[in-house]
Amino acid sequence: MLLIIILSLALAGAVFTKLSGDKLASKVAFLFSGINVIATGYALKLASLGEFAQLQFASAWITSPKIDFLLNADGLSILMIGLTNVLIPLIVLASSSRKLENESSYYGLILFMQFALIGVFAAMDAFLYYIFWELTLLPIFFIALFWGDGNKQYRSKVVLKFFIYTLAGSLFMLFTFIYLYQQAGSFNINDLYALELSNKEQYWLFWAFFLAFAVKIPVFPFHTWQPETYTESPTAGSMLLSGIMLKMGLYSMLRWLLPIIPTGVEAWTPVVITLCAIGIVYGSIIAFKQDNIKRLIAYSSLAHVGLIAAGILTVTKAGFQGSVVQMIAHGFNVIGLFFVAEIIFRRLGTYDISKMGGIRALAPKLTTLFFIVVLASVALPSTNSFIGEFLLLFGLYEYNTILAAVSGLTIILSAVYMLRMYQRVMLNELKSTITAFADLSLSEMAVMVPIALVIFACGVYPHYILKVAEPALDIILKNTLR
Amino acid sequence: MQLVYLLILLPLIGFLVNGLFGSKLSKTVSGWLGSLVVLGSFAISTKYFLDFYTGSLAAPIDIKAFEILYFQNISIHFGILVDQLSVLWLMIVTGIGFLIHVYSIGYMHDDENFSRFFAYLNLFIFFMLLLVLGNNLLVTYAGWEGVSLCSYFLVGFWYKNESYSNAGKKAFIVNRVGDLGFLLAMFVLLYYVGSLNFSDLKAEALGGNIPSNVALAAALFLFVGAAAKSAQIPLYTWLPDAMAGPTPVSALIHAATMVTAGIYLVVRTNFLYDLAPEAMQVVAVVGAATALFAATIGIFQNDIKKVLAYSTVSQLGLMFLAVGVGAYTAAVFHVITHAFFKACLFLGSGSVIHALHGEQDIRNMGGLKKWMPITFVTFLISSLAISGIPPFSGFFSKDEILAAAYEHNIGLWLVASLASLFTAFYMFRLVFLTFNTNFRGTEEQQKHLHESPSLITIPLIILAALAVVGGAMGIPEVFGGTHWMKNFLAPVVASGSGAAHAISHSTELMLISIASIAAVVGIAFAYFRFVKGGALPLKDGEEKGLQKVIYNKFYVDEIYNAIIVKPLMTLSSLAYEIFDVLVVDGVVNTLASITYWKGKQIRLLQSGNIGFYLIMMVLGACAILGITIWQL
Fold first, then answer.
1. pLDDT digits (tens, 9 = 90+) for A224-270
2. Do B172 and A415 touch (CB under 8 A)?
3. Which range of residues forms the domain containing residue A416?
4. B146 touching A, CB under 8 A?
5. Which of A164, B174, B424, B584 is the most exposed place for a label (fewest CB within 10 A)?
């Protein structure tokens, strides 16, 4: 029942936010998402105790074809829902100090997005899952289209491209599900796990499935929608996309791809994991010289999620555990980075790094908090992503030494682009064009401080995440290695 | 609660207080707060040291505090290990650390970010303690990267200067190359041995359960980490640049403590190196090569701190030579004596720079002993110590290394001896040009010349005193000593070969004589050239031939720039502008265009002409019929 409450709170929040009018919208949205944090916190506590009864819901829905309204949050799902529900109020808060047009729709869409995301992470019926998966695309499409900064015409081109690209990827997935339904006679995930598909079927089904996730994550070379979409979207849109939405692809690889198509995965892993490793180095190197701070973050994100995808594909315990820790870590870190970009944009009206410099002298609070996020992005020990990358790279090492060494370059390369960016933005002489730069406001602190706390909490004591995720990951591992 | 937690937490508390509320504290309060927390840690370290010294503690303290992460059957804890090796490092880190904190109160008193400076120093001490107290490689790694971070903060402390920020960034990035090696070493050990705990690894190694190729891989990867942190060829280039930081930082981090972490790591994992003679060979050769290479560069440098920086690189090379030939005790011994005299030298140079308002070029100094007697005498003592003049501390530790090298391979001994000769020369070139002859600076500078305040001179005096007597820790048998340190460290490096003992006393005396004579020759040469001869270093741009190459540090930075940095940056532009935008995205856009274009064509079929639709319908029906019949 708790799971239904969590899901309904998001939907109800969306409706009430829309109805509350522009003046109250951000407050109502924050209220609903805040209450949801409490409910989710309770759910996480139950999950850590191994009590999942409250986190399951099943009801018949459509009889022919047989589709059930089947929601079930195991350790993996509840962690992803936890990530979503903690980030949403931060995203709402991050937007609230900026005046926007038509705020009731804007915040309503964010909460509707939350609803769809929770559904994706909880649905255990393939059809239901697919509906939620596609539902997430609608709010983000409108948010990116209507509330972005910069040239409207160019933006609509970029956003449309993103929409069609990911939708096209998803259609392959729909096709896969229909095919699987014909084999299994059911959309229930356990029936799909039980399927014994022939090797030949698995070889091509793998790609149909993988394409949907590869575009969403994105995996090199399916990433070209990403930099421009991140750059053109409003910051809240970039946060939703990078912080949570791309985790849908990674999560789905774990949940749907690996256990249903194990032989296909085994056969194609050498190819796909190499693509991921290329993406790590490629994204990092491109990030070196980007002048647009959002595009730089986009390419760094390509590198970071490439490592997560590679770790998942190793089908090792370390890789799986690392991927969960790193999905959560990356969610917080990338939102922190985008928020810093937003903070600077609000004051200087630009995302162009070459127009920044020396800000440290004027904004000590921003300096400290920004640097903490930078540290997390370069995976310094005692920050969240160190744990994630350590496990992921060890998983890769178990799979193949060379791939681990190549992917391990990320710890050098990330230091190059992150410290370079930090220096060009914050250090050196103050740019003469910058006359004033207000330090963080209270509401901005309210976003950055929790992120900083999570960074260290997960970095020093990741034990909780590992423990909650373990049973669910064991089941996936067992099904993949059958 | 164990006292050792307090030992680690005190500097962290200092960091948090100074970091969060420093701007509200007076400079006196924040400076002394930062210093006293380190003094507190020093007191606790002393207690542990005495426990081991007197023998009231014989077995190491090995604590598992809490589990950090686990998977499959592998579990990694946060854990603490206090043993003979770590207490020695504790004494250096907190003892010299405290002196340098006090010195900094005097040195940094005019800086607007005074409290931030102390926050960083405290944080550095915290991570350094974590590094030497970790009971497994992961905790050590956390400290290892933490000290890099503090080095980054402190090298680029004056962040408005772009070249300082660059130096800090470079230090961090080059160290990251080493960190990748460290990380891979951990993976090798985790995969094949299943643990990162020093005690487990040691037991497995001694029990013969680690195959030699695994030990070799782990030892070499660890050495990549050590070589970066301790500035060895080819990863040393960050250290001279790191001199951009305030001078106390150079003394604490880039001379006495952090840069010796690489030695610590190798000594800590000596049981792995013992299983991998090839790895030791690599360590010894890299160490010897670095010792000579850096000493050569040191001869022609004119920046007082750069000379000391190359000297540090060179001395670290000697230490690696020692561990490479299995003389672990000698390496640790030299780490400690080096910490005394090199910290003293750096702080002395700071005192000079302070008096000259930022001047660092020895061509613009000279005759300073008249105005700065305490700085001069302490600097001189430390220079004698580093040159290896008996009975100063450096004499004992360096001779032990030379003897061990001699026993191992005469070529290595020769290289190390030559490096020592150069060391004596460039150190006294530095002493004479700075403190003897006449002052060559401006009149304005001369008017303000003064001895530094007691906050600065007292640490100098204490360190100089230690540089004099420090050798007592390891007086060899040939002089009637018992070599206290060898016995003390025996439980940690028991497996290591006692290299110095293998050669006869007469050979040892001969080696000692040669080394001492070489040192005297080096000093005498400097004396005749710069005091009697009155020679001065050339002005910039006047160097010719080999001298020019050495003055420009063999152009190593330029070469790295040309073959690594520049190509990567170009690749970054090309990968983005050509490959990503035109090729990858180009394919995507082309696919879209084709679809669009096909759609446009197919759209023409929907012409609205009913006759056409009817024909198509009939044709379709016929086709279906045909297929059905054909399938029957």
1. 999 999 999 999 999 999 999 999 999 999 999 999 999 999 999 99
2. yes
3. 2-480
4. yes
5. A164
